[in-house]
Design brief:
Chain B: Residues 212-293 form the AstE/AspA barrel-sandwich hybrid domain. Chain B: Its EC number is 3.5.1.114. Chain B: Its cofactor is Zn(2+). The complex is a heterodimer of chains A (312) and B (323). In chain A, 23% of the residues lie in helices and 25% in strands. Chain A folds into two domains: 3-223 and 305-311, Aminopeptidase (3-Layer(aba) Sandwich); 230-297, N-terminal domain of TfIIb (Single Sheet). Chain A has 312 residues and is of the alpha/beta class. In chain A, helix 1 (26-37) packs across helix 6 (190-211) and helix 5 packs across helix 6. A nine-stranded mixed β-sheet of chain A has the order 3-2-4-7-5-6-8-13-12. In chain B, strand 5, helix 5 (130-142) and strand 6 (146-149) form a beta-alpha-beta unit. Chain B is an alpha/beta fold and 323 residues long. Chain B is 27% helix and 24% strand. Classes of the chains: A alpha/beta (312), B alpha/beta (323). Chain A binds chain B through residues 30, 33-34, 62, 120, 182-191, 193-194, 239-240, 243-246, 249, 264, 266-268, 285, 287-288, 290-291, and chain B through 23-24, 26-27, 57, 115, 174-183, 185-186, 232-233, 236-239, 242, 257, 259, 278, 280-281, 283-284.
Chain lengths: 312, 323
């Protein structure tokens, strides 16, 4: 185990729960609307927990976005772009959210933001981490994993220099993505809804314990580090010519070995995975990623070490 | 007795985000006359019903195309305010109809997906169209499939397949909208192939024996409980009902689970079969699930009647009347 010193963080006083970053991902929309009406469930001693619908127009239309994907919109260029009302709706929203919960990168930013998402992929309850050096988040994720054991809670680390994207939650000091599936867009499944609720409950419990002064000893967290985006095979016109193979469909987090079936053409031929080594695919057949040229993303397993943490 | 089925239409993308049909139609359109063989008695039209919605990967752009095929809508006035889908329904009616006329295609097979766990279903307006029921029975011998009957009088039939002399929707789930799952696509492709095989057998004079089949006749829909002010839903399909399409629902069985964890139960007196449980597109139509009665339908044997036999019959009738 590490002999690092304990890392101290200030108390997490300001916490936000975002829903509707994608307007058709219904668990988060429903939970946040519930908590806006009555937020008792998400309150913890000493913490101001703010539920917030990030993309109300998309929620109203029950579509992922109106002009552009809000969860890709928090780039430095967008956040400082002039133009006001002429800007795409989601860029305006990003600037507003940055004002309310940021500014991103500043001491005034919210301590923690939980961003609630659903996926059509069979990812179960996935936690998304943006930095391998965020010991606070690592300890939180370790706490959540232990709390729900033997049920599992994979951690997806998206720290890839090219594939990382500028999320709504990135405005906070400690951004946490909750991705729960499988659930079709526009549909509310009660089991998925409850699962998300339980994960968030444990996350908030962790924050309360931390704020009360509990010290969390060093720990290790198994993560899946994003490696590569794999697109569907396409023809010269850009049309998809094969589907995720039945052997790969729904097998998020399971090993994909070189030679394993990966895609099946519409006339039944198999296309095999020809990578160098075993990878762990996820976001397999996510509806929203057809337009982003992604059939699935490969990950590699890694064990991260989290230092002990306590409040300053 | 029916005449030759000489013109058959296979339609996909009636809802632009129901992708099995979209991709199947695309594949079929790549090969010229892919479902026809040489010296065929049947010609097959392969149609992408709502190209604009397909392009945007949405169910529809202005209004649901699959509600635009009533006689009233098809024959209504045209203006530059006419929604795209109504203009399109009229185009499809010219191509495949006109509905109710002798020029209409013999059979329309309209391809759909649902987020509900319904497996493979044929959906039709009739429980005594023997063409549809024999096709169903033939399919059943090859793949698990159910027949859903919407008991609407022909005047009220609103969907695309009502344009043909005979027609049904092929509905397969569960599949999220905007996604193509290989197992679902493969099932749909096999289903369409079996339909075409039956049509060929029928056209070549095969006698299909009488028998009986089980049919689910739609009785009613149940909406989600909603907030009286905002109209938002206040409960989700109960976990014990979710994915249980075609499992008999008894009085007092759980229907919904409110967001505060309370169970709401089925208050009907009659046990019925639920389907379209938690179909995404039906939230806006006020349908959480549909309920059906199941019954047995007896079908007569069926064989194609040739033109010659048709004429002979007519002479026979004429001479009988003289006597």
């Amino acid at each position: 185990m590490s002999s690092h010193n304990t890392v101290s963080f200030s108390e997490a006083r300001r916490v936000a729960v975002f829903g509707g970053t994608h307007g058709n991902e219904m668990s988060g929309v429903t939970l946040v609307n519930l908590w806006v009406k009555n937020g008792a469930e998400i309150q913890r001693k000493g913490v101001e927990t703010k539920p917030f619908i990030t993309n109300p127009k998309a929620v109203e239309k029950c579509s992922r976005y109106v002009d552009t994907d809000l969860n890709r919109a928090f780039t430095p260029e967008n956040l400082s772009a002039p133009g006001g009302d002429d800007l795409p709706y989601e860029v305006q929203r990003a600037q507003e959210i940055n004002r309310l919960f940021g500014p991103k990168g500043s001491p005034e930013a919210y301590d923690v933001i939980f961003d609630l998402h659903n996926t059509t992929s069979n990812m179960g309850c996935t936690l998304i981490l943006e930095s391998s050096k965020d010991h606070f988040n690592l300890q939180m994720m370790n706490y959540i994993k232990k709390a729900i054991a033997p049920a599992s809670c994979p951690v997806l680390l998206n720290e890839h220099p090219l594939l990382k994207y500028s999320t709504s939650r990135s405005v906070a000091k400690h951004p946490v993505g909750l991705e729960v599936g499988p659930q079709p867009q526009g549909v509310l499944r009660s089991n998925i809804f409850e699962a998300m609720r339980v994960i968030l409950k444990h996350a908030l419990d962790f924050i309360e314990l931390f704020n009360e002064g509990m010290e969390f000893p060093p720990c290790t967290v198994d993560v899946f580090r994003v490696s590569e985006r794999v697109d569907y095979p396409r023809d010269a016109n850009g049309n998809i010519i094969a589907m995720v193979h039945p052997n790969l469909q729904d097998c998020d987090w399971e090993p994909l070995n070189p030679g394993d079936p990966m895609f099946q053409t519409f006339d039944g031929k198999t296309i095999h995975y020809e990578g160098a080594g075993t990878v762990y695919p996820t976001f397999i057949n996510e509806a929203a990623y057809y337009e982003k040229q992604q059939a699935f993303v490969t990950t590699r397993r890694e064990t991260l070490v989290a230092s002990a943490i306590r409040k300053a | 007795m029916s005449c030759l089925l000489s013109r058959v239409a296979v339609c996909g993308g009636t809802h632009g985000n129901e992708l099995s049909g979209v991709y199947l139609v695309r594949e079929l359109q790549k090969t010229e006359k892919p479902l026809e063989e040489e010296d065929e008695l049947v010609s097959v039209l392969v149609v992408l019903s709502n190209p604009r919605a397909v392009q945007q990967c949405r169910r529809y752009t202005e209004t649901d195309l699959n509600r635009c095929f009533t006689h009233a809508t098809l024959n209504g006035p045209e203006s530059d305010k006419t929604p795209y889908e109504i203009t399109r329904s009229r185009e499809l009616n010219s191509l495949l109809g006109p509905k109710g006329s002798p020029e209409a295609v013999d059979l329309i097979c309209d391809l759909h997906n649902t987020t509900a766990n319904m497996g493979l279903c044929l959906i039709a307006y009739s429980d005594h169209d023997w063409i549809c029921l024999h096709i169903f029975r033939y399919l059943q011998a090859n793949i698990p499939v159910r027949y859903i009957h919407f008991d609407f009088p022909p005047k009220e039939a609103y969907s695309l397949e009502s344009v043909g002399k005979h027609g049904f929707a092929i509905e397969i789930g569960p599949q999220p909208h905007g996604v193509v799952r290989s197992n679902i696509y493969t099932t749909m492709k096999a289903g369409v192939q079996h339909v075409m095989d039956w049509v060929r057998f029928f056209n070549s004079g095969t006698i299909f024996e009488g028998g009986s089949v089980e049919v689910y006749t739609m009785v009613k829909n149940i909406d989600y409980p909603r907030d009286s002010e905002t109209h938002s839903i206040t409960a989700a399909i109960h976990p014990q009902l979710q994915d249980q399409d075609f499992c008999l629902l008894h009085p007092n069985d759980p229907l919904f689970q409110t967001f505060s964890g309370e169970t709401l139960r089925y208050k009907g007196k009659e046990p019925l079969y639920p389907f379209f449980i938690n179909e995404c597109a039906y939230y806006e139509k006020g349908i959480a699930l549909s309920l059906a009665r199941r019954k047995c339908v007896k079908m007569p044997p069926i064989q194609v009647k040739t033109e010659l036999e048709h004429q002979e019959n007519e002479w026979e009738f004429a001479s009988e009347e003289d006597e």
